[in-house]
Amino acid sequence: MSVDQDKLMEFLGRFIGDLGATIAAGSVVVGHRLGLYKALDAGPATPAELAERTDCDPRYITEWLRGQAAGGYVMCEVDSDTYWLSEEQAFALTNPDGGVYAPGAFVLALGALRAESRIAQAFRTGDGLGWHEHDGDVILGCEQFFRPGYVANLVSSWIPALDGVETKLRAGATVADVGCGLGASSILIANEYPAARVVGSDYHDGSIELARKRAADAGVTERTSFEVASAATFSGLGYDLVTTFDCLHDMGDPHGAATHIRQALAPDGTWMIVEPFAGDTVADNLNPVGRAYYNFSTFLCVPNALSQNGGYSLGAQAGEAAIRRLVTDAGFTRFRRVTETPFNLVYEARP
Ligand SMILES: C[S@@+](CC[C@H](N)C(=O)[O-])C[C@H]1O[C@@H](n2cnc3c(N)ncnc32)[C@H](O)[C@@H]1O
Prior knowledge:
By secondary structure, this protein is α/β, with parallel strands linked by helices. The chain is 52% helix and 16% strand. It contains 14 helices and nine strands. The strands form two sheets. It has a seven-stranded mixed β-sheet, sandwiched between helices. The chain has a two-stranded antiparallel ribbon with strand order 1-2. The longest helix has 30 residues, at 5-34. 44% of the residues are buried. The mean pLDDT is 97. The site of S-adenosylmethionine has 22 residues, from helix 8 and helix 10.
């Protein structure tokens, strides 16, 4: 066997980049927890100045800033030992309510990795690992990862892309937000459409407890309610809109969920399905977005589905054809992809 030196060096370059990114994930989360990015966004700083601003130890801040600069997460002028954030870095690193909040994704990733030994064991046994069995950072990081995309797109483009739904929401529609997690989507809908009523549900009681708190903090308790229920058992009938945000593929029985959703919808109701961006074939997904989702799926989505009854484990890269099959098998007669972002596909299904 002969090793091609050029190919070896190319692979080693990829590996060292990944190694740096893996350990740097911890530094990003430290920056998030201690407010280091926000403090740096106040203006250029030497390590001593940033340490002063953040009440941190200067030696730690020095090492952190150098690591951030080496990874392209902060700008740096080596001669004056000064660091700052570019507009683009600040956009992605400092605002949890903006269109992208990269640190939230790393909170989720590190939270998921805490289950690594249990997941390795599950590879042998085929057992599942439920969403509720993960480290709490999975729950919080999931909200931080997905919410910015919903803030940027849900009201401005996803809902308007659905057939007639925006008008119904403004007039006072009833909405079931299934698998709602901490209720980010439920609260955005309740905020934007004050006449609408939103019932969020999730099988995980800890998530529902936090969703109620989030709704109270957002001042929308009168327009929202939350219940602990699986997608196949949530309560209520005659909904104008049922939504599933980044959760259908996580379920062990998405067919049971789809069937229940069809029964819970009004005859002219709409099921809005938001799923991770994915192509239909494995080859379509061998790219950076697919890499992130396949690996999140290995730790979160597939184990959760395998922990539930139903016999499915679609994974986060199910693709449009698989979702269409599922939806039509459950008796929906109309299905279409309405819009997409680099991270999400949005579908509409009608009874
Ligand atoms: C990736 S998270 C998405 C949460 C939320 N929709 C969001 O976008 O932030 C997946 C959610 O699906 C929930 N879930 C998993 N299986 C479920 C089931 N069978 N029924 C209801 N919820 C489920 C999990 O508890 C988790 O909150």
